[in-house]
């Protein structure tokens, strides 16, 4: 996890918040460093994590996590991490191996069916995060990277939003846990379905971290800017959302944040 980002969010693995829905949004850049941050943050916090990884392989996430001081392999072995490797599940479904191996329907069963509902995926999440009597983990956490992939796999916007709604009820409301979801977004895009999902999620999020590429193009000392939007209006109708804007630079094992125009190269 990145200490500077924790300071900006006033967050600590010793006292993780509960019942929150956090949206990670990226435009003209790659926001996956935020996924790695929250994955390592909640594992360090001692939370039970269900990671629906639709974009990369387990080995990729594990290599990055090790740079941040966390072992995903060890977390899986001790039952703290439930990892759904979407790439492998899709291949198994296409070649008919998934059900033969486990005897259970695949969480991504909708790919091979005419109906595009995500009930099997929700049941996988609910079962993974429902605590057993012997569990000593803190609040459960659902992490999704990245939700936009479900649309590419054939799920409808309504099905995706229904899935998130049921997950919010189960994880945030009933289990007092948290949800962190990454979505790709491009305001100039003609992908109306994706933008519909993104805009709907923005309205229901407690916290939005929106990373954007620089409008001026590539810069080796500033990789983009991040908007931290705290949805105060969700709780206090008359209040405006709090918005903070910073720029950032991604390093090998860290990310540094600074006010706009105040990078080390400029100073």
Q: Outline the low-pLDDT stretches.
A: none
User: What is the strand content?
Assistant: 15-25%
Number of strands: 9
Distance between the amino and carboxyl termini: 26 Å
What is the 3D form?
A: globular
Strand order of the largest sheet: 3-2-4-5-1-6-7-8-9
**What's the story with the biggest beta sheet?**
9 strands, mixed
Question: Can you walk me through this structure?
Answer:
- By secondary structure, this protein is α/β, with parallel strands linked by helices.
- It is built from ten helices and nine strands.
- It has helices spanning 3-9, 32-44, 58-67, 72-77, 86-94, 98-102, 119-129, 148-152, 157-174, 192-204; strands at residues 21-27, 47-53, 81-85, 138-145, 178-184, 207-212, 224-230, 242-250, 255-258.
- The longest helix has 18 residues, at 157-174.
- It is globular and about 55 Å long.
- It starts with a helix and ends in a 9-residue tail after the last strand.
Write the layout of secondary structure elements.
Blueprint: H1 3-9, E1 21-27, H2 32-44, E2 47-53, H3 58-67, H4 72-77, E3 81-85, H5 86-94, H6 98-102, H7 119-129, E4 138-145, H8 148-152, H9 157-174, E5 178-184, H10 192-204, E6 207-212, E7 224-230, E8 242-250, E9 255-258
Parallel strand pairs: 1-5, 1-6, 2-3, 2-4, 4-5
Antiparallel strand pairs: 6-7, 7-8, 8-9
């Amino acid at each position: 996890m990145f200490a500077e980002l924790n300071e900006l969010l006033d967050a600590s693995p010793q006292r993780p918040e509960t019942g929150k829905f956090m949206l990670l949004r990226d435009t003209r850049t790659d926001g996956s460093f935020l996924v790695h941050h929250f994955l390592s943050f909640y594992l360090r916090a001692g939370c039970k994590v269900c990671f629906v990884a639709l974009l990369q392989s387990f080995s990729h996430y594990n290599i990055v996590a090790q740079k941040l001081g966390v072992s995903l392999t060890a977390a899986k072995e001790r039952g703290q991490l439930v990892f759904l490797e979407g790439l492998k599940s899709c291949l198994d479904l296409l070649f008919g191996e998934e059900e033969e191996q486990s005897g259970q329907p695949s969480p991504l069963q909708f790919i091979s069916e005419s109906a595009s509902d995500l009930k099997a995926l929700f049941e996988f999440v609910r079962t993974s995060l429902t605590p057993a009597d012997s569990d000593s983990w803190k609040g459960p956490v659902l992490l999704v990277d990245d939700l936009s992939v479900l649309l590419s796999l054939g799920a409808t916007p309504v099905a995706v939003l229904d899935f998130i709604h049921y997950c919010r009820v189960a994880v945030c409301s009933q289990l007092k846990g948290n949800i962190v979801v990454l979505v790709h977004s491009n305001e100039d895009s003609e992908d109306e379905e994706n933008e519909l999902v993104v805009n709907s999620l923005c309205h229901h999020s407690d916290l939005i971290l929106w990373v954007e590429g620089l409008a001026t193009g590539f810069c080796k000392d500033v990789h983009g800017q991040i908007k931290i939007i705290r949805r105060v209006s969700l709780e206090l109708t008359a209040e405006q959302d709090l918005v903070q804007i910073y720029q950032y630079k991604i390093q090998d094992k860290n990310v540094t944040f600074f006010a706009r125009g105040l990078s080390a190269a400029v100073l």
